[in-house]
Design brief:
The protein is an alpha/beta fold. It has one domain (about 10-95, about 150-325). Helices cover about 35% and strands about 25% of the residues. The chain has ten helices and 13 strands. The chain has helices spanning about 15-35, 50-60, 65-80, 80-85, 100-105, 120-135, 180-190, 205-210, 220-235, 295-300, and strands at about 90-95, 110-120, 140, 145, 160-165, 195-200, 245-250, 255-260, 265-270, 275, 280-290, 305-310, 320-325. The longest helix is centred in the first third of the chain and has 21 residues, at about 15-35. It is globular, with a radius of gyration of 20 Å. Bound molecules: S-adenosylmethionine (SAM). The site of S-adenosylmethionine has 19 residues, from helix 2.
Length: about 325
């Protein structure tokens, strides 16, 4: 890879081709396990190839999607308190960094290093270049990785690590894996580490459901893109027109559940293994849990974090927690 900018270190994404192969092996393995179950599921991390990341960025700009603009508003408030909360020589580590424009709100002269971590390689590189150009005095070290796993940070970064897990991503884990993520993030960030988490709060069902069923149909395209990704990786021929997108807020578990529904009986063959989708069968493509302030505090504590502070917007739609080790 060409050396791009003097403040951008690409050591942790150099081996992308090797990782990409491993990724597709992991994709195939996880997909086969999940599609063999009675209730079929596709983990949400597989949404994010370049096309998926671009669709997600479009979602963040939709009027129905209150998450991004509310979180940014709260971050502007946090930015005024940075000097009171932190000393200098900080390293920002963003798990699932996406466009990285949210942490941009908090970057000031206290921050020396920034590590965007993401599973969407092309988008990660693009966003890191943008960040490096915008903040020429900041040293950017992007890493292509799966954030659920423990990750060893490079030695050269500063000891005071401030992690970020934004965009309501804490709600996107199946099977209570959010606790494992929070435990591993504690290990990754180390004993002086702290972590900002964006937490979407329980609110009126209609407001939540509109955010995942936008009038322009971008959320549908984001989910249907999974079929294109499966076709690309496994050379299969699933057709978007043979599925429809459905998403609702399940109040029993305080979670948005999104699905692709098969419009006909059809089959998918991956590595000689056959999977059948019956007409009207649902394949879950996303979960997005909503919390109360207290239920998130309990979760954070159960993973060994203490709540240092939290901020909530005036509508009580969304909160940002600052956790300390
Ligand atoms: C909901 S988006 C949030 C993006 C951004 N942080 C924001 O707040 O707008 C989730 C981001 O996490 C990345 N991602 C999802 N699962 C991941 C995983 N297991 N490991 C690393 N990155 C992941 C996606 O590629 C995407 O950029």
């Amino acid at each position: 890879m060409v050396k791009l900018l003097s403040n951008l270190n690409t050591d942790y994404i150099q081996n992308y081709k090797k990782f990409d192969k491993i990724d597709n092996v992991a994709f195939s393995k996880e997909l086969k396990i999940e599609l063999s179950k009675k209730n079929k599921k596709i983990p949400s991390k597989f949404h994010y190839d370049l096309k998926g990341s671009i669709y997600f960025e479009k979602i963040t700009k939709l009027k129905e999607y209150y998450v991004t603009r509310t979180e940014k508003k709260i971050l502007r408030q946090v930015s005024k308190e940075m000097k009171k909360i932190f000393d200098n020589n900080l390293t920002f580590v963003e798990f699932g960094s996406g466009a990285t424009d949210k942490i941009g709100i908090l970057i000031n002269e206290q921050v020396k290093f920034c590590m965007p971590l993401d599973i969407s390689y092309d988008f990660l590189l693009k966003s890191s270049i943008k960040l490096a150009k915008f903040f020429p005095n900041l040293f950017i070290i992007p890493a292509y990785c799966d954030y659920i796993k423990k990750f060893k940070l490079p030695k050269k970064i500063s000891n005071k690590r401030v992690g970020f897990f934004l965009g309501s991503s804490i709600g996107n884990f199946y099977n209570k894996k959010e606790k494992i993520f929070l435990q591993n993030a504690r290990t990754t960030l180390g004993k002086n580490g702290c972590l900002f988490v964006g937490v979407d709060l329980i609110k009126k069902k209609t407001i939540i459901e509109k955010a995942y069923n936008d009038s322009k149909g971008i959320s549908a395209k984001f989910n249907l893109n999974l079929l294109d990704r499966i076709n690309k990786v496994f050379e299969t021929k699933l057709k978007q027109k043979d599925f429809k997108y459905f998403s609702h807020f399940n109040e029993k578990i305080n979670s948005v559940e999104s699905f692709l529904i098969s419009k006909k009986d059809q089959k998918l063959i991956i590595d000689n293994k056959k999977f059948f989708f019956k007409k009207n069968e649902k394949i879950q493509t996303e979960v997005s849990k909503k919390f109360t302030l207290n239920s998130f505090k309990i979760l954070a504590n159960s993973a060994g974090w203490k709540v240092k502070k939290y901020w909530v917007d005036k509508n009580k739609y969304y909160s940002i927690f600052l956790l300390e080790n």
